[in-house]
């Protein structure tokens, strides 16, 4: 109700709580990408948390660049199968060039594979070694793999009180989940986490150069923000620190000139130049 003092007092409190929840979530997400743990079990959970964070950040990007983002379910699906592909599509939509048509594929494939091993585990069978040469072996279900199930035929036995024996009544079809063991080394986990750190840094760069800096003209160089650009294209010449290197301009980062790109956008999505 307008003028109701209770509404006024509740609104800031609700907003403050919402803000605190966001900040708490961001702190946890930062922990996933912090220094790799020397305790391998915690390191593996870092990998899982980092992977889920990347999935959600890509989903958030897709939502933000959509012409008509959904305001009610179904929202964008957190598609772990196609993270690299979706991220490349985001880059294209933001008019940014990438070094490769397969950018982020290897990093995401390794991360998903390790996360699946951990997500479908039944238990740890062993933890061996000392950092940095630790390894864990897990027993897991081969979920969604060709050998996931074993199907056998067998009879259903009922206990007969009179004869005190089991009597087979009829044949039945039995499906049994298979099991497999997987060994993960500390070095492999560290490599996956490093790859996810690179992907996350690229997501941040896409937001900055493709959205926040979209108002910058084509001739503006990116010297003072070069540190947040994780990739480098061959046609930009020598890399930073090498002889003869130069700072790229926004036009060198873009697929097409700024003017053409802005003209291609719907009115509601055009940056204010």
Automatic annotation (TrEMBL):
Protein origin, superkingdom: Bacteria
Protein name (Swiss-Prot/TrEMBL): Uncharacterized protein
């Amino acid at each position: 109700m307008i003028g109701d003092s209770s509404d006024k007092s509740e609104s800031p409190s609700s907003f403050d709580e919402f803000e605190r929840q966001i900040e708490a979530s961001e702190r946890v997400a930062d922990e996933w990408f912090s220094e790799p743990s020397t305790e391998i079990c915690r390191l593996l959970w870092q990998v899982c948390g980092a992977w889920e964070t990347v999935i959600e950040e890509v989903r958030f990007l897709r939502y933000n660049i959509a012409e008509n983002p959904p305001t009610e379910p179904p929202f964008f699906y957190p598609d772990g199968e196609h993270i690299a592909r979706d991220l490349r599509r985001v880059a294209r939509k933001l008019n940014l060039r990438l070094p490769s048509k397969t950018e982020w594929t290897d990093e995401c494939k390794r991360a998903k594979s390790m996360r699946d091993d951990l997500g479908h585990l039944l238990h740890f069978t062993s933890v061996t070694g000392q950092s940095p040469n630790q390894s864990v072996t897990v027993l897991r279900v081969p979920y969604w793999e060709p050998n996931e199930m074993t199907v056998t035929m067998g009879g259903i036995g009922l206990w007969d009180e009179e004869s005190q024996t089991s009597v087979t009544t009829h044949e039945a079809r039995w499906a049994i989940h298979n099991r497999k063991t997987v060994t993960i080394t500390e070095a492999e986990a560290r490599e996956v986490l490093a790859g996810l750190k690179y992907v996350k840094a690229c997501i941040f760069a896409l937001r900055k150069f493709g959205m926040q800096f979209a108002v910058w003209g084509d001739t503006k160089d990116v010297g003072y923000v070069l540190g947040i650009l994780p990739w480098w294209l061959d046609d930009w010449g020598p890399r930073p620190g090498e002889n003869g290197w130069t700072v790229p301009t926004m036009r060198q980062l873009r697929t097409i000139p700024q003017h053409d790109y802005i003209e291609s956008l719907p009115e509601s999505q055009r940056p204010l130049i």
